[in-house]
Design brief:
single chain, alpha/beta, Dehydroquinate synthase-like, alpha domain, Rossmann fold, 2 domains, 6-stranded parallel β-sheet, two-stranded antiparallel ribbon, 15 helices, about 50% helix, globular, disordered N terminus
């Protein structure tokens, strides 16, 4: 059942995205010609294998230099903070950079897109951040920038927001706007072959979560539905394979495409309560974003299904959770009553199979749950959740994720 048939065929929707996407094994070899048409000195923001290791950073800088683009490198070690973005901006200005390349996972790519925006709009990252900052709008197009992902997770290569941490306020928030979209995304699954299993697991669960949340979002629409329905089974069949055998290129290709699709769907449809929690949780605890999402996904799915059934046994969103259950399990004949619960079990079993720990392993304790619930309700993603969850339901979900139940 499509979003149009559930919410009204006359509903207005839009689709925005990166204008040029190059996908496929070996596609990094097309980076040099693309970049040389945009600038002469690139700031390469990277959290991929370091320069000199023979990994992705060397591949990318070699491509750039061979096509006449000099490089300055900024290493983004963690999820970016306001200070990180401002430091990267100073590196770009000191190197007289006129183009930015984001290389690696979502942390490097989000830092890169924020720097590209600040190069032309001025100010600090905090000036443009939602919730914790001034929330100023980006008025000018960003400096040209190219996304080159190595992990298959956030889909940051095709999103119009950059998630930035503000440790002083114990929160992560976005800079948001269409000016943040990359000029091009070069998605080469071969660059993911060296990604460690733990990173593959967390990143992949984030991609799967984004596909599920955007499909069940109140902002879902026919085009994002089609993309999510393509991505969910790819992640379901290939994530465990990619974790257990990092050299499985077919699995890496599935996950790279699933992550790419998840970035497009979240940008256009929104997410839900899992990502509502992820913003304050990531800012307050040393937990990878994907691990937070993975630990919370089964519980949020179950809570949403319970709340929807309580509201209306034939609620249209229940049909969406039934579809998710079928896509995850590959069981096309599952009935509408059984399929949502089968989807919840699949998400929980997959997280366990690939070694996602309970949130308590990252120092999250029960006495912080109420505080996190209050902060999560302020997050932008929460407004797209398919049903309004009570404080009691949110508390139960997070408590179970902390304990690993």
């Amino acid at each position: 059942m499509t979003a149009a048939s559930e919410t009204g065929a006359d509903r207005v929707f839009e689709l925005v995205g990166v204008g040029r996407i190059i996908f496929g094994s070996g596609s990094v070899e097309r980076l040099g010609p693309i970049a040389s048409g945009m600038g002469r000195v690139a700031l390469v923001v990277t959290n991929a294998e370091p320069a000199g290791s023979g990994g992705a950073t060397d591949d990318v800088t070699r491509e750039l230099v061979e096509h006449g683009v000099d490089c300055a490198i900024f290493v983004q070690h963690r999820e970016p903070t306001v200070d990180d973005v401002d430091a990267a901006l100073q590196t770009a200005r000191g190197g007289r950079c006129d183009i930015v390349v984001g290389l690696g996972g979502g942390s490097a790519i989000d830092c890169a897109k924020a720097v590209a925006a600040l190069m032309t709009n001025g100010g600090s990252a905090l000036d443009y951040m939602e919730v914790v900052g001034k929330g100023l709008k980006l008025r000018r197009p960003s400096a040209p920038w190219i996304a080159v992902p190595t992990t298959a997770g956030t889909g940051a290569e095709v999103t119009r927001n950059a998630v930035i941490g503000c440790p002083e306020r114990n929160f992560k928030a976005s800079i948001r706007g269409e000016h943040l979209l990359a000029r091009a995304a070069v998605v080469d699954p071969k660059l993911g072959l060296g990604v460690p299993p733990g990173v593959t697991a967390c990143s992949g669960m984030d991609a799967l979560c984004q596909l599920i949340e955007s499909y069940t979002s109140t902002g879902a629409q026919p085009i994002t539905d089609a993309l999510a329905a393509e991505g969910i089974p790819r992640a379901a069949r290939s994530l465990e394979r990619a974790v257990k055998n990092g050299s499985d290129l077919a699995a890496r290709e599935d996950m790279a495409l699933a992550a790419l699709l998840s970035g497009i769907t979240l940008t256009n449809a929104g997410l839900g309560a899992v990502h509502g929690f992820a913003a304050p949780m990531g800012a307050n605890f040393p937990a990878p974003h994907g691990a937070i999402c993975a630990a919370l996904l089964p519980g949020v799915m179950a809570a949403n299904v319970r709340a929807l059934r309580a509201a209306q046994e034939s609620h249209p969103m229940l049909a969406r959770y039934a579809t998710v259950g079928r896509l995850l399990t590959g069981r096309a004949r599952l009935g509408d009553r059984a399929a949502p619960d089968a989807g919840v079990r699949f998400a929980a079993d997959l997280a366990a199979a690939i070694g996602i720990p309970p949130l308590g392993k990252f120092g999250v304790t029960g006495d912080r749950v109420a505080e996190m619930v209050v902060l999560a309700k302020k997050a932008n993603s929460m407004r797209y959740n398919p049903v309004t969850l009570s404080d009691e339901a949110l508390t139960a979900v997070l408590s179970e994720a902390v304990a690993g139940r």
